[in-house]
Amino acid sequence: MPEPSSSPKARPSLTEGPITKTLILFSLPILLGNVLQSLNGSINTIWIGKYLGEVALAATSNANIIMFFLISSIFGIAMAAVILIGQNLGAKKVQEAKKVVGTSTVFFLVLSIIVALLGWIFSTTILDWMNTPPDVKEFAVTYTRIMFAGVPFMFGYNLIMAILRGSGDAKTPFYFLLLSAILDVALNPLLIQGMGPFPKMGIAGSAVATFIAQLVSFVLLIAYLYKKKYFLRITKEDIPLLRIDWTIIRTLIQKGLPMGLNMVVVSLSNLMLVHLVNAYGSESTAAFGVAMQISSYVQMPAMAIGGAVTSMAAQNIGAGKWERVNRITWTGVGVNILMTGLIVAVLHLFNREVVSFFLPPEGKAIDIGVHINNITLWSFIIFGVFNVVAGVVRSAGSVVFPLIVAFVALLLVRIPLATVLSHKYGFDVIWWSFPVSFSVAASLNLLYYRFGKWKQARMMASKT
């Protein structure tokens, strides 16, 4: 007699039903999760700044750059797992999906332990490479080492989140992300200051709070999935699947690295822009920093919808439902235009008020920030279009072309445009480089979607 979770009706399916409703319900938990993570980081920054001051804040900034790099490095591999699992489930190959789960589990476990050990041992060396200021270094080493100790739980959570999203479940990861965020935010001041029965740990307390939150959330998530008899869990009979299948590993790396490099290209482009804006003075730098903080929230619907269409398209590609894949694409584009457009409209109405929330009333920074938003905010609607289309293309296994598009648009169009023409035509060219580069990226992705051979791509060569 089959277990309840093994019956087809109990399994999340993205290959049938209304597309718009499914897309919105699937993308909302991803969107809320992204917002939650940003708020979590912002609140913890406030705790550290309030209780420990600027030096401690600078130390965590250095450590967070390292953590962002680590998350970027596994993001692509996790996305490859999402697509591979989705395609197998769409093709009703549950056992093949379980093989991906088994191999990914072993791979992420080994990788996370190696990264944690190397990070713990070489934290000082890594921070030296980053030119960490001497007065910050002691704080930074303490914080970074504890954060590295939590890497296995961070990697593990990202893997489980990928498995769940690949199978069509975006709600469960959000619930446990919410639990982690609440624990992290609550424990930070208690462990930093030593309130009540908690020891006073200073900056180490902030890192330990994050460590505990990740550990508790990770363990409870696993326990929950086994209690619910989640159909892709590894049972006693599946223990032989906990091994390295080199075909799957090669696929995860070959398809995952280009998706991870996409994040590196975006980060590199932003760093180059910061370097350019710094030449125009501290007020411009502050205004640009605030504008980018605001735009990070504006981008979230596009990122969530892009993640949702990737999972949905992957299952439908596995099922061979190409006409439904096409409908998913244009539904995703439409939903992005509506959601991002609404946020952009509201921000334009309250532009000065929002910018003023981050900046002191004196000086020109507020006016500059308002001006930057007036030019750049609407362009994130275009950003959403190319992000959604790229998500569908990647779900077929065509991962290199979207990377090339990002490289061309952000490094070969945006940066030269902002650098060269700003000297001739002024400061505004830097901000106009946003809509120009996003338009180039959207146009190239749409042309490839219409005329390219992305449908012929394969995630993994068929086994004979």
From TrEMBL:
Give the gene name. Answer: mepA
Q: What is this protein called?
A: Multidrug export protein MepA
- Extract the InterPro entries matched here: MATE_fam, MdtK-like, Membrane_Transporter-Flippase
- Any one Pfam family here would be MatE
TM ranges are 65-85, 106-127, 139-160, 172-191, 203-226, 259-277, 297-318, 330-350, 370-392, 399-417, 429-449
Record membrane topology:
Multi-pass membrane protein
Identify the keywords attached in UniProt to this record, alphabetized: Cell membrane, Membrane, Transmembrane, Transmembrane helix, Transport
The reply to whether Cell cycle figures as a keyword in the UniProt entry is no
| Gene source species | Paenibacillus allorhizoplanae
The organism sits in which domain of life?
Answer: Bacteria
Q: Where in or outside the cell?
A: Cell membrane
Q: Which residues form a coiled coil?
A: none
